[in-house]
Design goal:
Layout lengths: L2 E5 L5 H10 L3 E5 L3 H9 L3 E2 L3 H4 L5 E4 L4 H9 L3 H4 L5 E4 L5 H13 L3 E4 L2 E2 L1 H7 L2 E6 L2 H11 L3 E8 L3 H29 L4 H8 L7 H5 L22 H18 L4 H18 L8 H4 L5
Parallel strand pairs: 1-2, 1-4, 2-3, 4-5, 5-6, 8-9
Antiparallel strand pairs: 7-8
Helix pairs in contact: 1-7, 4-6, 9-12, 9-13, 12-13
Bound molecules: nicotinamide-adenine-dinucleotide.
């Protein structure tokens, strides 16, 4: 069993750290939140006084932080890299921009460390259940070393390619998810206004070429799919403000790669409007309110 440093014990990191301990690993943890620290320590982790301290004397150092700026601060700025012993493997599971992920890889390599970017999908439910999908970027050898550790937290562990390509894969997926959420809302509102019942629209489209995960599982028209957040007061689920963060990352990636993504840009503008309208904490399916403000 491994010794693991874990920094960032929030909604995702907290349950991920607990699953590592359930898997028999010894954890040394750090978070700025005292409450998050107490919870992890009560579950059996050793408290560290800083990110730098959490990365010392461990085999793997994992970060699960909100954004790229936090990763720059915690990993590169007198943090994890400065505190880690030779041979420690660095894993960043935060969802961040490809550029920062690649800068973190470069800083780790310059200091002699192996690193993997390993963002996740599956949400808080998947983090709790240990059923996350990990999208990994780094060398094949590093991926092989890290895989058994990730298996304590997830079921689907995919090597997407070299440094940063885990983040690139995650951003492509979430850009498409945002587009599909908006497109599903447009089709459902237009169809019902034309006089087709929402049940007929759902039954036909969910078995036809217009279907998507969002249309099938998180259908934005309230009362269409019982388990969709839209049928449960738009309670998340996946919050609109997090979708906006990921869509903005997708637009940065589009610019960096010279790719025209008009639909991604439209979805980004739509979610920005939704969040500015006070729906940032509502589920992504609340995007239907832009098409029909009376929905729900
Ligand atoms: P969160 O805000 O709940 O947790 C982040 C934690 O990092 C907090 O506990 C915070 O105190 C800590 N932190 C921030 N700066 C720190 C620092 N300098 N040193 C130590 N700790 C610090 O966020 P989350 O929902 O756990 O998400 C983490 C990442 O996972 C994000 O990038 C998010 O986009 C991604 N993600 C989230 C979900 C989801 O459903 N919540 C799903 C997939 C991916």
């Amino acid at each position: 069993m491994a010794r693991i440093g874990f920094v960032g014990l929030g909604n995702m990191g907290g349950p991920m750290a607990r699953n590592l301990m359930k898997g028999g690993h010894a954890l040394k943890v750090f978070d700025l939140s005292e409450e998050a620290m107490n919870f992890a320590v009560q579950s059996g982790a050793e408290a560290a006084s800083s990110a730098k301290a959490a990365a010392g004397g461990v085999d793997f150092a994992i970060t699960m932080l909100p954004e790229g700026a936090h990763v720059r601060e915690v990993v590169m700025n007198d943090g994890v890299i400065a505190g880690a012993d030779p041979g420690t493997v660095l894993i960043d599971s935060s969802t961040i921009d490809v550029e920062t992920a690649q800068a973190a890889h470069a800083a780790a390599a310059a200091a002699g460390f192996e690193m993997l970017d390993a963002p996740v999908s599956g949400g808080v439910v998947g983090a709790d259940a240990g059923s996350l999908t990990f999208m990994c970027g780094g060398s094949t050898a590093t991926f092989a070393k890290v895989r058994p550790i990730l298996e304590a937290m997830g079921h689907n562990i995919v090597h997407c390619g070299g440094p940063g390509l885990g983040q690139a894969t995650k951003i492509c997926n979430n850009m498409l998810a945002g587009i599909n959420a908006l497109a599903s809302a447009e089709a459902m509102v237009m169809g019902t206004r034309l006089g087709v019942s929402k049940e007929v629209l759902y039954n036909v489209i969910s078995t036809s070429s217009g279907r998507s995960f969002y249309f099938d599982s998180s259908n934005p028209m309230p009362g269409t799919v019982a388990a969709s957040p839209a049928s449960n007061g738009f309670k998340p689920g996946f919050m609109s403000k997090l979708m906006l963060k990921d869509l903005r990352l997708s637009q940065a990636a589009a610019q960096a790669s010279g790719t025209a993504t008009p639909l991604g840009a439209t979805a980004t503008a739509a979610f920005q409007h939704l969040v500015e309208g006070g729906h940032g904490d509502d589920d992504t399916s609340s995007i239907i309110k832009l098409i029909d403000p009376k929905a729900g």
